[in-house]
Every structure is written in C-alpha cells, then in structure tokens.
Amino acid sequence: MLNGATLIELTEHYGAHNYHPLPVVISRAKGIWVWDTDGKRYLDMLSAYSAVNQGHCHPRLVKALRQQAGMVTLTSRAFHNDQLGPFLQELCELAGMQMALPMNTGAEAVETAIKTARKWGYTHKNVPAEQAEIIVCEGNFHGRTTTIVGFSSEAQYRDGFGPFTPGFKTIHYGDIKDFERTITDNTVAFLVEPIQGEAGVRVPPKGYLKQVRKLCRQHNILLMVDEIQTGFGRTGKMFCYQHEGIKPDVLIVGKALGGGLMPISAVLASRKILGVFRPGDHGSTFGGNPLACAVAREALRVTVEEELPWRSDRLGNLLIKDLRTIKNPLIKEVRGKGLFIGVELFPEAGGARRYCEALMTEGLLCKETHDDVIRFAPPLIIEQNELDWAMERIEQVLRHPLRR
Ligand SMILES: *Cc1c(COP(=O)(O)O)cnc(C)c1O
User: Fold this and answer.
1) Do the domain assignments include residue 404?
2) Does 403 fall in a domain?
3) Which top EC class is named for this enzyme in its record (predicted)?
C-alpha cells in the first residue's frame, strides 16, 4: 500500500482543492475508532459531520448493505422496488409525518424543500406567480448548490459563483422580532436549522422555535426545519426541534439517515404539502434506490434500538460539564446540546485549527468550524470510559494556551 504522504500528494495533485483536510489518511474504521495508514488509532470526534452517528461500519448496517447488494441495488423510479415503500413508512412513522420524498444528499433535500414551498405557495396560498419568498437565517448552512449558496451569508461560499436565484430574505438567527418584520403576504416558508452546526454550533435562545412555530401558523407560512446534521439523536432527542415541543411543517433529513454507508436524504411533510408534486415535477435517478433504502431502514432501527438519542443526551451533558471545568482564558464559550458541542476560542488563541492539529497528535480527530470553534461530535455509540479517555486528552491540549 502507498504510504500516507504519497496518498496525500496524489489527492492534492489530481483532486480539486476545495477542502483543507487535516494531514491524516484513514484506511480503516470501526465504531468510534479510525486508523491511519501507519496503523495509528484515533477517536473520531467529528463523525463525518454527524453522518456516522451509529459508528463506523456498524455490523448490522454492513450486513444489511451486503444482503441488499446481492439482491438489487438500483431500479430508478421508472419502476417500483421492494425497499422504498417500507423505508418511507418507517421513516414517516418515526418522525410522525404523513409523506416523504427521498433524495441522496442533504443539498438535494433542501432544494426539494424549496421547490415544495414555492409550489405550495402558488397552489395553496395564492402567491402571485414568481413572487414566492423564503426567509432564511444569517449564518445558515444548507448545502452547496448554486441556489443554496446564493442565500448563504458566508462570503467565501458565494464568491465567484453568481448570478444567484432570487426569492430569499435573510434575518438574524434567534431574533424573533427580525423574523416577524420580514414576513410579507408572499412569504411561503421559513428555512431554519434548530442549531446552526457549520456556523459553530450556535444554539438559539430558549423558546425561539416555539415563537417561530406560532408566527408561521398565524401567517400561513411553512416552517421548514433542516435536521440534516442535528437529526437522529445528535442533540439528545431524535430530532432537535423536540427540545421545544414543536412540530415543523417540513422536515429535512440526511447524513446519519444512511448510517455512514450510503448517501440518502429525504423531505417529510403532510399529505397536503408534499401532495403538490405530480409525476414529472421532480426526481432523481438514485433517489429511493433499494440499496440506500435497505441500509437506511437498518440505520433507523439501530438508532432506536441502541437508544442513541438518550445516550447522546446523557453523555453530552457530562461532556459539556467537563469541558466547562477547563480553565483557559482563551476559551470564550462551551455550548451545545447532547453530543453536539462547540468550544469557541477568543481570536487571540490564533485559531481552532492549531488545537485540532494538537488533538490529532494526541489521537483525537476534530475539525475546526469557522476559525475559532472546535466541534466535538463523536459517534453516539461512544461509552462513558471512552469519553473519559477523550476528555483527558482534550484537557491536556486545552488547559494551556498553545505556544505559537
Ligand atoms: C451537511 C448539511 C447539509 C448539506 O448536506 P450534503 O449532504 O453535504 O449536501 C445541509 N444542511 C445542514 C444543516 C448540514 O449540516
């Protein structure tokens, strides 16, 4: 096998440079652990941005994948397959929704939700043609298509990729007054993350989603919650919106739905809302493929049967408490819910990346988000003693300001 340095060179030489990964080459993984090409072991504290909540190569998921791969993997939606129907039923029952539309990536599901809201606005709310408005939040992350980056507030995500799709208005995240004054007769939807992950694990004020829910109902606006990163137990509930006791009109899921084995995403809503689609309105060659559906069905069962939301809640509270005991004047804030935690450093710390590199040396894989936040989001199958092991190393690295 090629050594790590050579593999990195190949990637950098032949691959477009749209990422800046930590210099580690992973060639094997199991549960919460990954190994590099030299056989060094690391605890995965990122979980592929929460796509591997169930842990790497979960034996039940690998078995489901193998079994389905020997039966049928792709039919396209030109024909029915025997996995899609049961998958949709099980997902809808888990989320308490009536209907779902399967796609592959998160961004595709968000695009699907946007199309749903617009069509719904024209057919059910009498919004004049081409006038539908969707409200989004500053700091949002919903994916990387041209339409989606068009309403990002992150300059780098947009720079050089215009012209963009019109019809989006941006408000301050967590500011209910700003939301209320931005609503017009043409507002069809509010698209929001219950916790902003990529913005640095930003948690909105308590009660925010409840107030949003109320205003959406009053003004006949679809509340579309993007749970692609926060869903399936990550924040200590099956879905993060459950912390506020509300229910969205449109739920967007992805990432951990495929258990880290297959890309699969979905939009869920009522029959009335998703009923806006007629044959030919929307589609995807791989959307709803039997291989991904079979894996997702098992991923959902594992999430429920291994009580991942409950584990996340219990262990996350302990980890946050421990992290808050670290005395370092460069730490600005420790925040999050469940095992979805951000440690924000003051700018004087010189950026979170250096700390992630130091943690890597100690055997922990973390990734900075934005310049100053270290995100801790291990697979939800992690055990208390493993978390203690991680905490010892985190403390060693974060206890003292790193020397430049
Ligand atoms: C990751 C993510 C997306 C995009 O998902 P992809 O599968 O990368 O397209 C959208 N929304 C949120 C909140 C995410 O975290």
Assistant:
1) no
2) no
3) transferase
Residue-by-residue DSSP string for 272-290:
HHHTT--TTSS--SSTT-H
Average pLDDT rounded to a whole number, residues 181-187? 98
Rounded to whole angstroms, how far apart are CA atoms 359 and 338? 21
- pLDDT at position 404, please? 61
Give yes or no for a contact between 220 and 247, defined as CB atoms under 8 angstroms apart. Answer: no
| Residue 239 resides in a domain | yes
CA atoms within 13 A on the CB side of 127: 24
Best of 255, 257, 370 for a ligand 1 pocket test (most atoms within 8 Å of beta carbon): 255
256 pLDDT more than 70: yes
CATH code: domain of residue 256: 3.40.640.10
- Using pLDDT thresholds of 50, 70 and 90, give the confidence band for residue 1: confident
Is residue 361 pLDDT above 70, yes or no? yes
Residues 29 and 152 occupy one common structural domain: no
Catalytic residue among 36, 44, 226, 313: 226
Rounded CA-CA distance 374/366 in Å is: 7
Is residue 401 over pLDDT 80?
Answer: no
Active-site residue 255, yes or no? yes
Same domain, 275 and 185: yes
Shared domain for 145 and 213, answered yes or no, is: yes
Position 368 scores a pLDDT of: 92
Residue 54 pLDDT more than 80?
yes
The separation between the first and the last C-alpha atoms of the chain, rounded to the nearest angstrom, is: 35
Which residues have CB under 6 Å of ligand 1?
49, 105-107, 110, 141-143, 193, 197-198, 226, 228-229, 254
Torsion sign, CA atoms 141, 217, 123, 266: positive
Among residues 87, 190, 249, 255, the one annotated as catalytic is: 255
pLDDT at 310 over 70: yes
- Contact, 385 vs 32, CB < 8 A? no
Instruction: Quote the domain boundaries for residue 216.
Output: 59-305
Q: What is the pLDDT of residues 90-143, one digit of tens each?
A: 999 999 999 999 999 999 999 999 999 999 999 999 999 999 999 999 999 999
**Residue bearing the CA closest to ligand 1, atom 6:** 106
- Residue among 103, 108, 112, 142 to mutate when testing ligand 1 (max atoms within 8 A of CB): 142
pLDDT band at 242 (very low <50, low <70, confident <90, very high): very high
Counting the structural domains of the chain, the total is 2
Mean pLDDT confidence for 199-219? 98
